[in-house]
Amino acid sequence: MIVAGFGFRSGAGLSSLRGALALAQQGQPPITHLATAQDKLAALIPLAEALGLPLTGVAPDALVAVSTPTRSVASATARNVGSVAEASAMAAAGAGAHLLAPRCVSPDRMATCALAQGTLS
Question: What CATH number did the domain enclosing 22 receive?
Fold first, then answer.
């Protein structure tokens, strides 16, 4: 299972999400799932539908339980986590998941995406 986790600002559109995903996917295996913070789930539905992939909302306590290599000031302030994208990907991929690479930022800086590999099916 390869999960693409997303963090994004309010107002980030489909092009921002696609931009971050495209950067994260470079040289990586195909993704099988999408994930983000539970309260941001609705904004990711259009991308999940366009890609035909399942979508997981990650609860706040699951986000903060994940240690991330990236330390974003915005994520730390808003969510008490280093990177929402990295934490979402790893939490959704399950116990023992690992990041394939640190988060990538969309060209417009509205969204981030990180890929994690896990064993959940």
Answer: 3.30.420.180
**DSSP-assigned letters across all residues of 52-82:** T--EEEEPHHHHHTS--S---HHHHHHHSSS
Write out pLDDT tens, residues 42-97: 999 999 999 999 999 999 988 888 888 888 888 877 877 878 999 999 999 988 89
Tokens of 52: 């035909």
Host domain of residue 21: 2-117
Local structure of residue 106 (DSSP, 8 states) = -
CA 44 vs CA 10, 14, 70: distances in Å: 12, 8, 22
pTM of this prediction? 0.91
Counting every residue written for the chain, the total comes to: 121
